[in-house]
Amino acid sequence: MLSRLKISLILAPLALLMLVGVYIYSLWSEERERRAAIPFDATRVMNRDLQKFHQNRGSFPEKLEDLEGVVWEKKERHYVSDGRSLVHRNYFYLYSRITPHRFSLWAVPVGKVRDEALTLFLVGTPGSDRTWKGPALAIPDIENLSSAPSSNKLNMLGLVEQPNTRQESNSK
């Protein structure tokens, strides 16, 4: 009977320790999934990379896929619409080259918690940016996005123009 008691005194704390470990792991796992579902906006980075492409090549790329090997390192990305669109970290990016020196970029949140993030629309040139921000767009609105919408259309979608930003020159 004494040997059974010794085994119980050893196994009970081990079982309790294992239970606490599994509970902590489940909390960590849920938090990790929750963070992965939150849309993360990378429009500034994409704008910076598009500007670098323009500096290197003298014009903006025809599609986002053209950034690979020039500005972005080559790796597997999931492009849509013949390389013009990309889903990255729960944002759908729709790029359009308007002229060789002007582009537009839509950043629309997607996923489970998309309503908590902002929709952005950016018109970029080598010297300046015009940005509009607003609430997450409804799915039918995403299907009908235009590469060069009017200010009235952007207002109807709930987007508000932000103050203009100037690109810093690299000739310091």
Keyphrases for this structure?
172 residues; 4 helices; 8-stranded antiparallel sheet; alpha+beta; 24% strand
List how many beta strands DSSP finds.
8
Distance between the termini: 83 Å
Average pLDDT across residues?
88
| Oligomeric organization of the protein chains | single chain
Give the H and E element order: HHEEEEEEHHEE
Tally of alpha and pi helices: 4
Helix content: 25-40%
> Which stretches are poorly predicted, pLDDT < 50 over at least 5 residues?
none
Total count of domains: 2
**Radius of gyration using CA atoms only:** 24 Å
What coarse outline follows from CA principal-axis ratios?
elongated
Tell me about this structure.
By secondary structure, this protein is of the alpha+beta class. The protein folds into 2 domains: 1-37; 43-166, no CATH class. The chain is built from 4 helices and 8 strands, in the order H-H-E-E-E-E-E-E-H-H-E-E. Strands 1, 2, 3, 4, 5, 6, 7 and 8 form an 8-stranded antiparallel beta sheet that branches. The longest helix is centred in the first third of the chain and has 36 residues, at 2-37.
List strands and helices in order, with pairings.
Elements lengths: L1 H36 L5 H15 L21 E2 L4 E4 L2 E9 L2 E8 L8 E7 L3 E8 L3 H5 L7 H6 L3 E2 L3 E2 L6
Antiparallel strand pairs: 1-2, 2-3, 3-4, 4-5, 5-6, 6-7, 6-8
TL;DR of this structure?
Helices cover 36% and strands 24% of the residues.
